[in-house]
Structures are given as structure tokens and as C-alpha cells.
Amino acid sequence: MPKKEVKSKEQSLETVLWNCRVALRTIGSLEKKRDAIISLCFLNFASVKFERRRKEIIEQFGDVPVFLEKVSFYNAENVYYLDEHCRWNYIVKNASADDIAVKLDKAMADIEAKNPPLKGALPQQLFVTLNADKAAMKSLIDEVNKINEAHFKEEDLIGRVYEYFLQNYAASGTKEDGEFYTPACVVELITELIEPFDGVVYDPCCGSGGMFVQSMRFVDEHKGSRKKVSVVGQESNPDTWRLAKMNLSIRGISCDLGEKNASTFTEDLHKDRKVRYIMANPPFNLKKWRGEDELKNDPRFKGWAMPPVSNANYAWILHMLSKMDESNGIAGFLLANGALNAGAGGDDEGSENSEYLIRKQLLERDKVEAIIVLPRDMFYTTDISVTLWILNNNKKAHELNGRMLRDRTNEVLFVDLRRWDDNTEEYVLDKNKKKKKTVLSRKQIEKIRDLYFAWQSADRSLYKDVPEYCKAVTLESENGIRANNYTLTPSKYIEFIDHDLDIDFSKEMARIQNEMKEVIEQEKQSQQLLIKAFEGIGYGIE
User: How far is Cα 381 from Cα 383, in angstroms, rounded to an integer?
Assistant: First the structure.
């Protein structure tokens, strides 16, 4: 009898990526595991691009070493030159070698040395210090080897792999670990609202570079030109700065993240730089961002109240405002909800009210365009509700990307999305541990964008206030922003419906009275039984 052919079950991309994590489950710290896996994925993808470019050079110039080994021929096309011992095929062939960790560390060092754009991007001496045994390293390399375009016909395979590891390791980590990753749907929302089609996109706390990745994706989806957009950023954490350079470089996004990691406040690497677009997710409620007497004469804060040392929220706002192009700069960024009404209580110039004074100045100088409160539990290391702010230096009537905008001087759009919590995604953190997060669907993102555009539009018939959702508020109206002491809390302005009004109060009160009568009657019966019991043992109760 002929043997039955057994078909091997094809693994999904998610399964392969999970197996990569499993290979290092008991080895190294969370950060080292993340960097080891992402570095190997980088090497795999870089090799694919290298071999593809190598074929193009052969087709153009023939199999001539002087051309094939010329680094600039690769870098010019955002491809990295790889020596033979740095190529993925070499790593796969040597996966079982006793010194595979040494080989990998040498490959990372040599790739960085040969390709100036990668300076500081790749981890050094990571695999030796990981202390993974030979079997674990081979298992990991074998899994990463399965991640290729031949098996997974993903439109953006590189993006899918990097997003998976960045979001899952952020979800598994601490508050600080999660700060480098902003949920993709939130970044997508910001890009849809500020439309970074051309010019410089800046992020003063760029984390792993997600804002820049989504900016380029937005340009691609809208048939724009990447050549018209450049990205500039800064990051204080050295590991995250390196991760951002790696993340952007493997996707072919050229960037200026400065020559090193540095604090945006105390060492601004892009002084006097003006930009068209800003996208940011600063660390929430950052404390001790400066010394008590530090930065008081910094030009970024000149003409404004000085942000308090105890909280950097308004320092981030002023820093970003100082970078915005004065004629048409626009910024979309996230802050904890506490910033909406921070320092409320008066216009005293004491430090405790400097946040109030800055907010008052922002509104009187007409810098705030929209305030959008997002649903709770969208972020990986906090379940608080967060607000998306839009600042705009041009709220006058003009044409923008084919749309005619009206004059929105001294007007702010408030949107409350806290009820939009029914759409969730589940992240597998470990075998028996999962985490659910609220996400915005593509349809929801489009609805918010359309609302914002309708409010901006010269056609006034397109927008109307909606209870429990949105309201346009002016500075000077009777119940406007000045009258509410410059608070930016949407619930102060958006109409909320009292759903208790739908209750039939007469019927409900009758039901409560009947229940109370029953309770009182039962209480009387209990008292009578207690009196009889005491009388039976010779004690009377008056």
C-alpha cells in the first residue's frame, strides 16, 4: 500500500514571531531579548535588500568587483553594504557554531563600520552578553529565517514584524519600557489630522520612530512623494535612540536624529530649527525635567510663564511651539488629561499656577485648534485616558490640500471619545497571560478626521455640534473659554444628556415605597419575636 503523503501545516506569521519570543523565553532581560530578535530581523531584511541591489548592479555594470563592492552604490539606494560574513546566508549556515554569538556581534560591528548612516544604530556585544546557549541561538535563527517574502506575501512585511515586536515588548514591559511605543492607530489618527504631505516632520521625543514610519505610510497611501518629506527627531534614552535608527533605516527612511541621544530640554540638538509638522507622544507628567534655576533664560520659554519643575507637560508644549513654522506650522501631540486644567485657580504668577498662565496665553494667542480626549486603556503601560492636542499657527481662511478652510480665529473644537471603548485587540504576553487594549478602527479614525475637516471647512453646513461627542467653542462667547477660566476640559463645553430623564419617576417611586413598606413590616415582625423571646426568660422590654 503506498504511503499517504503528509502535508506540513503552514505556519502563520504570528506563530513564527511568537516562536522567536519563545526561543529566548528564559534568557536575558526583556530589553536584551527584544534587541536580539529585532537585530536578527534587521540582518535578515538587510540581506534581502543587499542581494536585490547586487543583482541590479550586475544587470547594469556586469559582474565587476569594483562596482559590486562599492559601498556608495548600495547606500545611494538606502541599501546597506554587507561583507560576506555579515550576510544572512552566512549566519544561517553557522547557526550551530559554538561561536555563533561572537560571529553575530562581529557582523553587527562591521555593518555599522561600513555604512555611515547606521552609526550608533546596531547593538554592540549584545549576543555574547545575552548568555544564550547554542541550541537557543540556533532555534531563534531558524525561526527568523522563516520570515521572508516568499513565505509571507505581506505588503509591508518589515513593518509587520517590527510593529509586532515593538508593541508586544512594550506591552510586556514597565512604564518606562512602554514610553517608546505609541499605538499605531493613535499615530495614524494624528497623521490623518495634520496631513504631513511635504516639509519637515519633527518629533522631540521620538521613541522607536513610530511617528515617522506612519508619516511616510500616509504619504505613500495618498500617492505623495517621500522626497518632499524629511524627518527630524531627538530621543534621550540611548537604547531607544538606537532602536529608532534601526527601525527607520531598515524601512528605507532617512532621518536626522542627531549624532547621539540627548535630553530635548537641556541639550536641544536641533536649535533654531523651524518645521512644518510636529508629531509627538511625550512622557506623561515628567518630573524634574530641569533644575530649579535651570533654563529660565532659554529662548524657547521667553515671553511665556515658566513651566514648573514638577511637571514637564507645558514645557513640551512650549518647546514644540518654538519649533513650529510661524506661518503654517501645525502640531499633533498627546498629553495626560491632567494638562487640560492644570494649575487652575487664578492668574497668580507663582509657580503653582504657571501651567494655568501658559494655557491662558496659548488660548489668548490663538494657538489651540482642537482638543480630542481619547478612550481609556489604549496605551501599554497605563490605563488612563489621554488627550490629543492640535496646535496651529494658521487658523485663518485659506486653501489646504484641495480644501477651502474658513477662519477659525479664537475658536477651538472639543471632541470626547471616552465612550469609544468597544473595539479591542488582545496581546499575548506569555503562555498564560494576555492583555487587551482599546484600539481605534480605520472607520473610527476616518470619522474623527471627517468631523475635524467639516469643522474647518468654509462650507458651514458640513459641521454641527453633537451632544456627548463634539462642540465648537469660541474664546469670547457667553459660556466660552474665557468664561470657563481657560479650562480645556471638553466636558465643560460638550452637552451631556441626562439619561435619568427617561425614567418614569412616579412608577419608580411607587416601586421603592412598596419595597420599603415590606422592609419595615419585616423589621416590626422581627422586633415582636425578639420581645417575646426576652419575656420567656423573665426579662421584659419596655
Answer: 7
